[in-house]
Structure prediction request, 60 residues.
Amino acid sequence: MHQDPSDSPVHSPGPAHSTTTVERGSFCLARCSCGWSGAARRSRDRARTDAEEHRTALDR
Ligand SMILES: [Zn+2]
Prediction:
């Protein structure tokens, strides 16, 4: 068996879902690279929690 980490395009390390928080006026919402976006929250902490829940929900 020969393992070549630089030659494996399918199995990529790291999360496929890259989440960020976006501010909209006085609200903040979570966004993901997959196109998902969370509900508008009043606190960034809430938006971050939404993003984390989205990732963990898809991880299972
Ligand atoms: Zn996602």
Summary: Helices lie at 44-59. The chain is about 25% helix and 20% strand. The longest helix spans residues 44-59.
